[in-house]
Structures are given as structure tokens and as C-alpha cells.
Amino acid sequence: MKSQTQELLKEDTISKLFNNTMGAFKAVIKQLYRDHPSLVLFFIFFLLICVYFLFKAINNSYAYSVVVTLLFVFLSICLYGREKNTLNSIFSFSLGIFTAFTVTWNGPTFSIFFISFIILLLGIFFITSIRAAANVEEKRTIAAISYISDFETNKKDLQEVKENVSKQGGLLSIDTIWETILFFAYQKVPKGKMITLIGALNYIYTVTKVDTELLLILLSNMNYLSHTEASLETNIAILKTYILKGKSTPSKLIRILNEALPIAIENDIDFALFTETILTYLSYGYAQQRIVEKVSTKFTKQAG
Q: What share of the chain is helix, strand, coil (3-state, %, to 5)?
């Protein structure tokens, strides 16, 4: 039910984004037509003439070349999306096109190119899948060796943790989930608490996109501060509220908590009171280092 709701929300968001984009495009066209009607009409006429000559010129070799060109356009866009480097994307596209058009495209050459390209994609996918599976299995094995009980029992318990977290949905990859399980396995965190902690990580990461390493430090500190599983669940619920409604960016709040929570752990301070104090100082405009100094002075004196 939850996954269906997420899919519906995702589809609704995409639909709204598309409608907003098309609405903005129509508004631009209308404004342009009102300001320069002759220019718009000339552009439409010119576009129709270009389409006419394009279809008139098309033959089989031309069609093959168009498909190859579009493929290089797609790959260059993917490269840009991956590296965010415009120059690399343009250079790769240009090199690919110049190389491609040294070939005379016809049925046989296009078939060879297409089949070899599919084989390349399948090979990359196969090797990537093997590496990912091996990486996950390595983390699973190390976690089972490092955990509380014997190897087989640990393996079973940790697999239950993974399945429980996976059912929640979210954006954590399988590799990240096992990396997190390994992190808490080293700390000998009981299974119930581990499920709570990784579930919180999954939720907070999905909502905020804050780096998982920062979140792991935070949740580890919260585990030390919370003496029971019930108190841990309560503190995590408080954290979720502050992250979403606090007068600070999630990343800034989490970084301050990571630096300041050892003070709360050492002096056994209530998490809600401690975090509320930090948010108060944040609202006053104090910098991170100054906030840590003030809560250290405040709660260390109180403990004494």
C-alpha cells in the first residue's frame, strides 16, 4: 500500500511538472506571437519547409545515420548527467560523430554496429552485477562474522534486518543497507535496535538526501544516548520532527548534533531538551562552533 502511494505521488509530481513546463512554453509562444507575430509566422513557415526537405531527402542510409546520431546524443547527455562536465560531453559527442561518419551506413554495417553495441551493454551489465553481488556478499559475510552470536545465527538475523528495511521502501541502495548493517554489526547493536536505526536512516536519507556517513554518526550517537529500545524510538521520532520543522537545514542541524551529542552522552542529557537548546541557539544566529561551546558550558555545569 505504501509503495503504491509513493508511485502515485511520483506519477502525480511528474504529471504536474510536465503540465507546468508545457504551460510555461505555451505562455512564451503566446507572448512572442503578441509581440512579434510576423517573426513567429516566418519561423513556422521555415520549419515546415525544413521538414518537407528533410522527408524528401530521407533514404535508408540517411535513416541509419540519424539513428546513430541520436544514439550519440543520448550517450552524451548521459555522460553529462553523470559527470556534470559540459566540455567532456561535447568532446565525446563530436569525437563519436566524426568517427561514425567515416563509415558508410547501410543495412550490414548498421546491423553489426547495433548487435555489437547490445553485446557491449550486456557485458557491462553482467560485470557490474557480478561486482555488486560480490561486494554485498563480502559485507554480509564480514557482518555475520563480527556480530553477536555464531556465524549462521548472525547471518539469519542480519538478513531479517535487511528484509525488514527493504520492505519500507526508500532510496537506500542494497549496497548501502549492507554497509550500514556492517557498521552496526561491528558495534554489536541488538537486532531490534538495528532495525529501528537503519529504518530511521532510510527515512531521513529519503527525505533530506543528507550524506549517509553523517547520518550513521548521528544515529550511532543516539543509540549510545538511548538506554532502551523504547527511548531510542522516541528520540528518533523527535529527531524526525526537528529535521522537518526545525529552523535549520537538515544538513546543518545534523552536523551540529554530530559534534555536540558526545556532550549529551557524557552527561546523560535528555535528547529532546538537548536538541531544543541547539535549535534555540541556531535561531539566535550562532555559528556551529559557538553553539557547541555554549551547550558544553550549559550542560556540563548542570551535570556538576
A: 85, 0, 15
133 belongs to a structural domain: no
Domain end residue (candidates: 112, 127, 142) = 127
- Residue 64 domain-assigned (yes or no): yes
**Quick one: pLDDT at residue 71?**
82
DSSP assignment of 143-185: HHHHSSS-HHHHHHHHHHHHHHHHHT--S--HHHHHHHHHHHH
Residues whose CB is less than 8 angstroms from the CB of residue 29 and which lie 6 or more positions away in sequence, other chains included: 40
Q: Provide the number of structural domains found in the chain.
A: 2
Residue with cell 540517411: 62
pLDDT of residue 138: 93
- Please state the separation of Cα 54 from the chain's center in Å: 42
Among 205, 302, 301, 213, residue whose Cα is nearest residue 258: 213
Positions of the chain with pLDDT lower than 70, given as ranges: 1-42, 45-61, 301-304
Same domain, 201 and 296: yes
Query: Is the domain of 184 the same as that of 250?
Result: yes
Give the model's pLDDT for residue 9.
46
Look up residue 226 and give its three cell numbers: 538511548
Q: Do 155 and 111 belong together in one domain?
A: no
The answer to whether residue 170 is domain-embedded is yes
Q: Environment class of residue 253 by beta-carbon count within 10 Å: exposed (0-12), middle (13-18) or buried (19+)?
A: buried
> What pLDDT score was predicted for residue 42?
66
- The structure's pTM equals 0.68
Query: Within this chain, do residues 89 and 181 fall inside the same structural domain, yes or no?
Result: no
Structural domain including 194 reads: 151-303
- Copy the grid coordinates of residue 135: 561486494
d(CA 212, CA 203): 11
Q: Is 20 exposed, middle or buried (0-12, 13-18, 19+ CB in 10 A)?
A: exposed
- Pair 117, 166 in one domain: no
